[in-house]
Amino acid sequence: MYFDLSIPSQLAGALLPDLVLAIGAMLLLLYSVWGPATLARARVTGILAIVVCAASFAAVVWVWRHDATASNGIIAVDAFRWATDCIVLAATIIASTLMIDYSEREQLVSAESYVLLLLAASGMLLLAAARDLMVVFLGVELMSIASYILAGLDRRSARGAEASLKYFLLGAFSACFLLYGVALVYGATGSTDIAVIGTAVTGKTFDNPMLLAGIAMLIIGFSFKVAAVPFHMWTPDVYEGASTPVSAFMATAVKAAAFAAFLRVWIEAFPGATAAWVHPLQWLAVVTMVGGNVIALMQKNIKRMLAYSSIAHAGYLLVTVVVANQLGAAAFLFYLVAYTLATTGAFAVVIALSEPGERNESIPDYAGLWTVQPWLAAAMAVFMFALLGFPIAGGMGFFAKWYVIEAALHAPQPQTVLAVVLVLASVISAGYYLGVVLTMFMKPRPADAAAVRPVPTGTFLVISLSAFVLLLFGVLPNGFVKLAHDSVPISMVGTPAGPPVTAAAER
Q1: How far apart are the C-alpha atoms of 254 and 114, rounded to whole Å?
Q2: Phi, psi of 130 (to 5 degrees)
Q3: pLDDT tens digits for 168-183?
Q4: pTM score, whole prediction
C-alpha cells in the first residue's frame, strides 16, 4: 500500500504519531488532576502513559511501513524521522516504567510527572520532524520546559530544586543563542526553511558575517542541548540532582532528539558551507570526547559518572555530524540505539540498588555485588562494556563505535584525526567503565553494606531486555545495520555513502 501525504492532509497523516502523543498527554493531564493525589492514581497514570506511548509508537510503525511521503515542507516525512521517533518513544516508555517503581519506593504521588514526560516527548517528535528552524526552536522549547520541571519535581529534594534552577537558567541562556542564530541565518538567506537555506548557501563564498555569526550561534545553541564541552556545565549537577528515571530520560531521549535535529539541520541547511563550520565542529568533538572521559575518571558518584559518560558519547555522535554523509547518518542511528539501551539499563541498575532518598549511589557501594545479586552485576557489566565498546561482551556497543569510525575514515574528506581521538578516548573511558566492573566482581562486599532490595518488576524487565537486546544485536548486527542504513534523511538518499555498512560484521 502506498499513499501520498500532501498539504494539508500532511497534518493528519505525517503528524499522526505526534497528534496521538499530544492528545494522549492532554487527556492524561485531565485524569491526573481529576481526583486526589495518591500512589494508586500515580501508578495508573504511569501505566496509561506507557499505553499512550505505545499507541504513538504503533502509529509511527504504521506510517513508516506504508511508505508515507510528503511534499517538501516544514515537516519531514522520511525514515530518519520515524527511526528517531521510535528511539524517543522507546526511551519514554522505559523512563515511565522506571518512574512507576521509583515513585512507589520514594512515596511520590505526583501523577503529573508522566504527563510531563509525554509533553517533553511531544517536543522531541517535533524536533525529529522539523525542516524549518522555527519549528526546531518550538520543538526545543516544548521539550525543554517540560524537562526543567521534571528535574525538580520532587519538592522534598533540595538537590532537585537546585538541578531544576540550573537547568532552567542555562537552558534559557542557550535558547537565546539558538533563536539569535535563527534570526541571523534568516537575515542572511531570507528563509528559515532548511532546504531553502541549503540552496541559498551552496556554491557561494562565505564572507557574509551575518551568516557566519548565525552558524556560530546555532552551533552554540545545539551544543548546550547535546551537552558538548564546554557547554556541558549543567549536565552533571542536573543528572545527579534529578530523580534517576528523569536523569535516564534526559541522558537518552533528550540527547537523541537534539542530535537528530542537529544532524538534519547541518546536512540539509549547510552542506555547501562546510568551510564555515567543519573546523569548529571538529574541535568541539575532540574536546568533548577527551574532556568528558577525563573528568569521568575522577567521579565517585555513579550518576555523575554516567553524566560525564553521556558527555563523552556526545563527542562520539558529533563525529557523525562532522562526517555529514549517508554512512555517517546510518552510524548515528545505530550508535543512538546502542547508547540508549546501555544508558537506560545502567540507570535502571542504579534505581535497583539505591536506597530511599537516593542513597547508596557511590561506586564503592557496588563492591561485591556479584556475591549477592549476580544477575544484576552481570547486566551492569554488559552495560559498561557496551558503553566502552568492548567486543563480544559489549555486544551492540562495539559495532556502534566501529561504524562511527568507519564513517569518519570513509567520509569524502576523511576524518582520520577524529577516528584516532575516538579510539584513544575510548581507551581512557576504560578506566571508569572497567572500574565499576572491577568493583562489582573483584572487591569484597563490606560487612556493613546495605542489604540488596528486591528488584521491582518494571525495573527488572528494563534491565533484562536492555541487556538481551544489546547482546543479541552484538552477535547479529547486520539486520539492524541495514535498517539504519535505509533510514537516513531523505536528502541523502542516492548520495555517496562509502563502503557497505555490513563490512565490519562480515569481517
Answers
A1: 15
A2: -70, 130
A3: 888 888 899 999 999 9
A4: 0.89
Q: What is the rounded CA–CA span in Å between residue 365 and residue 22? A: 41
Based on the structure, what is the number of domains in the chain?
Answer: 1
Contact predicate 228/314, CB 8 Å: yes
Q: Quick one: pLDDT band at residue 505, thresholds 50, 70, 90? A: very low
- pLDDT score at 276: 77
Domain holding 194, by residue range, is 4-506
How far apart CA 350 and CA 433 sit, in angstroms, is: 14
Q: Which one is predicted more confidently, 310 or 76? A: 310
- pLDDT band per the 50, 70, 90 thresholds, residue 491: low
Residue 10 makes CB contacts below 8 A (sequence gap 6+) with 70, 71, 73, 75, 77
In angstroms, the CA 351 to CA 371 distance is 19
Alpha-carbon distance 421 to 353, whole Å? 34
The closest alpha carbon to 150, from 178, 123, 126, belongs to: 123
**Neighbour-count burial of 452, counting CB atoms closer than 10 A to its CB (0-12 exposed, 13-18 middle, 19+ buried):** middle
Residue 465 to residues 21, 98, 240, 298, 472: CA-CA distances in angstroms?
24, 13, 25, 30, 10
The pLDDT confidence band at residue 11, using thresholds 50, 70 and 90, is low
Interior/surface letters 203-232, b for 16+ CB within 10 angstroms, e for the rest = eeebebeebbbbbbbbbbbbbbbbbbbebb
Over residues 126-147, the pLDDT tens digits come to 998 888 899 999 999 999 999 9
Q: How far apart are CA 226 and CA 250, in angstroms?
A: 10
Decide: 376 and 353 in contact? Cβ < 8 Å. Answer: yes
| Cβ atoms of 271 and 202 closer than 8 Å | yes
Residues across the chain: 507
Which candidate, 142, 156, 274, 256, places its Cα nearest to that of 205? 274
Report which secondary-structure segment, H or E, holds 69: strand 69-70
CA distance 227 to 234: 8
Residue 88's pLDDT is what? Answer: 94
